[in-house]
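#random but structural
TW: two for the price of one
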Amino acid sequence: MSDAPRELVLPTGASHVVFRLGDEPLRIFDRLDDSVGRVIQHAVVGGVRARYYVRDVSRPVGSVGAELQPGAAQLLFGATAAELADRHTPLFDLWGRAAEQVRERLLEAGRPERQLDVFESLLAERLPKPRALHPAIAHALERFNAESEIAEVVRETGYSHRRFIALFREAVGLTPKVYCRVLRFRSALDRISDGALVELALDAGYADQAHLSHEFRELAGISPRRYREAAPRFASHVPLRP
C-alpha cells in the first residue's frame, strides 16, 4: 500500500486514454475534501481539463495508456475533445465491446514492452488514413506555445473569432483562453523548484505572486508552497499524504 493513498492530478492541456490491467478499477474524487469519490471502469478516456482531480493510488495497479494530441479524440472515439472535456468517460461507452477486447489482448501480451507494442498497434488500426489536424488549429497550437496573443493568432488564421473558438474546442477540448491559461500554469510548474515565488510568477507570465497563488488554487487545488513541499516526482501528479 502506498504511503500516499491519494494523488492530486493537475491539468496538462492534453487528454489521455488508459487501460488499467489490475483488478482495481479507477476511483476518482472531484475535490480534495471528497472522501467517497466514484468508480469508473478499467478502460477510461480522460478528457482535457482546466482543473485538478484526485485519484486513489492506495493499491499499485499496472496500466497502459497514451497522452493524445489535439484532434485525436474525434478520430479514435467519434467524439470531439469538447464532448469529452472535464470528465472521465468509460471507453466502453465509446467503443462498446471492443474496449473489453483490447484490454483482454493487453493482458495476454504479458511483458510491459509487448503490451506497449500491442497498444500502439491497436490505436493505429483505429485511425483513419489520411488524417490531419485542421491547419488553423495546427498553426494556433504552434503560436500559443510561443506565448502569442490570442487575438493576433485568430487574425492570422483568417477565421472569425467565433468560428475559430468552435474549431479549437472541437479539436482541443478547451477554449483558446483556457488552454493558454493551462500552458502558463505548466510553465510555472517547470520553474517552481527554483528561486523566489515572486520571480517565478513574473518569469511564467503572471502579474505578481498573488496572481500565481490564485491560479494554483484554482487549477491545482493547493498553494505553490504546498506544491513545493510535496516535491512530486512527476510534475502533474502530486502525492497527498495523510
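TW: number two ↓
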Amino acid sequence: MADTRDKSIDQLNSFLRGELSAVETYRQALEKLKDPSIATVLQQCQESHAERVRALTEQVASVGGKPANESGPWGTFAKLVEGTATVFGDKAAVAALEEGEDHGLRDYRGDLDDLGPVVRQFVQDRMLPAQERTHQAMSTLKKRLAA
C-alpha cells in the first residue's frame, strides 16, 4: 500500500511541477503578447492552471506527501515560450502554448495507471477536465490566429 501511495505522491508532484511551469509560462507570454483578445484567453488559462496548482498541492498533502514548490526542468519550457513570443510573435507563442497544453493532456491521460484509486478519481474528476478545457481554448485560439 505504501508503494502505491508513494507512486501516487510522485506522480501528483510531477503533475504539480507541470502546472507550476504552465502558470509561469502563461505569465511570461502575457508579458510579451500585444493583442488584448489573446491576453484574455491566456489569462483564463493561467488562472485555470493556478487553480490546479492549489488543488494538487492540497491533494499531495492530503495523501501524506510534501508538495513540489518549483517547476524544475519544466521551467525550461517557460523560457522557450518567452523567447518565441519575443522573436516570432503572437502566433508562434500561441502555437508553443498549445503544444504545452498537448503535453499536459498526454501526461494526465497517460499516467492515470500510476495512481491509487482515490487519487486517480481526483485526477479524472478535477485535473483532466480542466486540462481538456485549457487545451481546447488554446487549440481554438491557434486556429483563429491561423485563419
